């Protein structure tokens, strides 16, 4: 016998689904006039973004049910909502697994997700965002025609690409080589699939006796169990990220054609899908797919960047996504919310005296109150830096939730670090080094083109008042050790020699000590300044350096011990090259085979900077002079980038 509730009229099913939805802020009539369309959606859902943008682009009013689909509420698992949604899934194959995508076409019909549209005039339930958008475009006579027949093939192709993008995978799962997602996701997503399965079991228990409904829950439970396995797989998460970067790269190439259906003279459904997709990627921290300069993608895609900005400023997208209530920004899209925030801040400031930021400070408004105090910063750069520092600091505290004792320990740690930064020791620089901050600043400020020698960190042992030597000189200063000969050339990016370049050299002895660390030594050693000859050559003799520990008797040592990290720097020679018309190069040459190359605590090693130091005999220097025999010989060409 058929389930009587499943055979009820659409109006009855809608009333039942709406029964638990009582919050007037999330259940309201948007626009004026017709109540034909009733939409069940979620503020943060990427598929809901598409449908809302279509509704605003068409100027179609609708009844909005902004239901919570994340833990703990999960209103989309209520049997009455599932029963309504299944009216639109009749005849469709139920979801059987997990692909990290949100399209019905790629995964099958999911009975427990959003969006769901009820068209009361057509007495119909539609359950796929693509089909909902196309239905509204056909049925609502107003606004922009989003699917013109002459462009249907091109539009369908672009939508297929967006629907095949694994947005959901990178939302729920962390990349194994570094979680680039917003702090809120890093904090809240672990364990989400277990919680969803538990809530699904609760919903299923309410559906016992109704086989069609319990079968729907069983399918969804299988999907979430598969999702839990998927997002825990490093290979699958790498593949999802790589696929997205490839999709954006392909879009960059297509945008070169400047076809009308991609944000040209005609704004289409394809543009809506791309707007939502690109914004979601930026929201997730994956804007590097087109900005480049990231460990996972170093290729800039300026056409995609320009396209995204045009899409994000579209009024319909602003209304449907950026300004939609309950759709929170992540730290990666703050700039697109600034106008709204500035407007709100201005309204608030009208009620305050200059410099005030309110008294009723709660956890949820503290960050905004602090940011309000930065509005009077002396320069735009100061405001940007202070705002970013505040947002990231508060996000860190929100994620970690330190105890008061832990926070006191952190303050004491920084205080001790400052006290240790005296004389020839700079513990704060060392802290910057081991946390990768020095390397990050170095990478930001030395984005050299392909073919140029890579930069590396300066380190704390560079000395301005160093001796100058002619090529071929011995710079060991009498420090004992195995002889070493370094020869090299300084070239431009085209391979032409750079004559007269200044080449600074400094390195440790075979105990890992630098001259300024040697208490019994008067004067400098193991360092010198050279000039390249007309062929761009320089050469010198010294002694072999070795790996050495960074200072670990202070706060940085505490940090490294707590993280179970190595304190050993691999053996290397520091090199700084300067020449008129070229960007300064600060780098190192590392000794091939050193056991610490893969665990450098200051993140200075790059494959291109590792060279063999080969033990040899009877070596001649470039000027014909004999080198010490035996000696360790290394040769390296340093390629400079011209200044712009």
List keywords for this structure.
single chain; alpha+beta; Protocatechuate 3,4-Dioxygenase, subunit A
Protein architecture, described:
- This protein is an alpha+beta fold and 644 residues long.
- The protein has 22 helices and 16 strands.
- Among the domains are: 49 residues; 207 residues, Protocatechuate 3,4-Dioxygenase, subunit A (Sandwich).
- Helix content is 39%, strand content 13%.
- α1 packs antiparallel against α3, α6 packs parallel to α12 and α11 crosses α14.
- The longest helix has 22 residues.
- About 2% of the residues have low confidence.
CATH architecture of one domain: Sandwich
Q: What is the third-level CATH name, the topology of one domain?
A: Protocatechuate 3,4-Dioxygenase, subunit A
Fraction of helical residues = 25-40%
Global outline: elongated
* Secondary-structure class: alpha+beta
Q: Please, what is the CATH homologous superfamily of one domain?
A: Aromatic compound dioxygenase
Residue-averaged pLDDT: 90
Binned strand content: 5-15%
What is the secondary structure topology, with strand pairs?
Layout: H1 10-18, E1 27-30, E2 37-41, H2 46-58, E3 62-66, H3 79-86, H4 104-107, E4 116-119, E5 124-126, H5 129-139, H6 152-163, H7 167-172, H8 183-188, H9 192-206, H10 211-231, H11 234-255, H12 269-283, H13 288-291, H14 302-312, H15 315-322, H16 338-349, H17 366-373, H18 380-400, H19 404-420, H20 427-434, H21 437-445, E6 483-492, E7 502-507, E8 527-531, E9 537-543, E10 548-549, H22 555-562, E11 568-569, E12 572-578, E13 585-591, E14 610-611, E15 614-616, E16 631-640
Parallel strand pairs: 2-3, 6-16, 13-14
Antiparallel strand pairs: 1-3, 2-4, 4-5, 6-9, 7-8, 7-12, 10-11, 12-13, 15-16
Helix pairs in contact: 1-3, 2-5, 2-12, 2-15, 6-12, 9-10, 11-14
């Amino acid at each position: 016998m058929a389930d009587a509730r499943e055979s009820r009229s659409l109006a009855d099913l809608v009333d039942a689904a709406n029964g638990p939805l009582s919050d007037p802020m999330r259940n309201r009539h948007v626009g004026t006039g017709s109540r034909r369309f009733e939409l069940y959606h979620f503020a943060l859902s990427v598929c809901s973004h598409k449908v809302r943008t279509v509704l605003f682009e068409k100027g179609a009013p609708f009844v909005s049910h902004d239901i919570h689909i994340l833990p703990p509420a999960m209103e989309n698992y209520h049997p009455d909502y599932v029963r309504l949604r299944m009216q639109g899934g009749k005849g469709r194959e139920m979801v059987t697994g997990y692909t990290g995508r949100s399209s019905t076409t790629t995964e099958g019909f999911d009975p427990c997700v959003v969006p769901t549209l009820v068209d009361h005039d057509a007495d119909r339930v539609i359950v796929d965002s693509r089909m909902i958008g196309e239905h509204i475009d056909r049925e609502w006579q107003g606004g922009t025609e989003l699917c013109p027949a002459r462009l249907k093939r091109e539009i369908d192709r672009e939508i297929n690409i967006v629907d095949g993008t694994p947005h959901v995978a990178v939302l729920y799962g962390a990349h194994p080589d570094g979680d680039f997602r917003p702090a809120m996701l890093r904090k809240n997503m672990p364990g989400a699939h277990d919680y969803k399965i538990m809530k699904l079991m609760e919903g299923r228990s309410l559906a016992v006796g109704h086989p069609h409904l319990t079968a729907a829950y069983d399918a969804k439970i299988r999907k979430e169990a598969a999702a839990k396995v998927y997002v825990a797989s490093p290979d699958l998460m790498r593949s999802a990220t790589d696929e997205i970067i490839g999709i954006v790269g392909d879009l960059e190439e297509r945008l070169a054609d400047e076809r009308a259906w991609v944000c040209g003279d005609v704004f289409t459904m394809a543009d809506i899908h791309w707007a939502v997709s690109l914004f979601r990627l930026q929201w997730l921290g994956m804007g590097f797919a087109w900005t480049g300069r990231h460990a996972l993608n170093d290729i800039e895609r300026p056409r995609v960047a320009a396209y995204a900005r045009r899409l994000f400023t579209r009024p319909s997208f602003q209304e449907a996504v950026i300004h939609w209530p309950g759709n929170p920004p992540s730290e990666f899209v703050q700039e697109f919310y600034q106008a709204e925030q500035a407007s709100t801040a201005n309204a608030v400031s009208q009620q305050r005296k200059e410099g005030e930021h309110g008294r009723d400070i709660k956890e949820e408004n503290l960050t905004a109150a602090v940011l309000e105090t930065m509005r009077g910063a002396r320069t735009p750069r100061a405001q940007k830096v202070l705002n970013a520092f505040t947002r990231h600091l508060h996000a860190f505290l929100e994620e970690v939730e330190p105890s008061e004792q832990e926070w006191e320990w952190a303050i004491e740690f920084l205080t001790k670090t400052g006290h240790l930064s005296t004389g020839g020791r700079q513990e704060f620089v060392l802290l910057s080094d081991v946390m990768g901050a020095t390397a990050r600043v170095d990478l930001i400020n030395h984005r050299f083109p392909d073919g140029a020698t890579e930069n590396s960190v300066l380190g704390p042992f560079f000395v301005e008042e160093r001796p100058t030597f002619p090529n071929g000189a011995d710079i060991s200063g009498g420090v004992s050790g195995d002889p070493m000969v370094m020869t090299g050339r300084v070239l431009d990016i085209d391979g032409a020699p750079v004559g007269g370049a200044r080449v600074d050299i400094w390195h440790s002895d075979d105990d890992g000590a630098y001259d300024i660390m040697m208490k019994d030594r008067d004067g400098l050693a193991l360092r010198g300044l050279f000039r390249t000859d007309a062929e761009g050559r320089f050469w010198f003799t010294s002694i072999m350096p070795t790996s050495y520990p960074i200072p670990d008797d202070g706060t940085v040592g505490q940090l490294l011990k707590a993280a179970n990290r190595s304190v050993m720097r691999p053996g290397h020679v520091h090199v700084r090259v300067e020449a008129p018309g070229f960007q300064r190069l600060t780098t190192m040459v590392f000794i091939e085979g050193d056991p610490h190359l893969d665990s450098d605590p200051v993140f200075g090693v790059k494959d291109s900077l590792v060279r063999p130091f080969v033990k040899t005999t009877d070596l001649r220097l470039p000027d014909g002079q004999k080198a010490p025999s035996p000696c360790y010989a290394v040769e390296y060409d340093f390629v400079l980038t011209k200044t712009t």
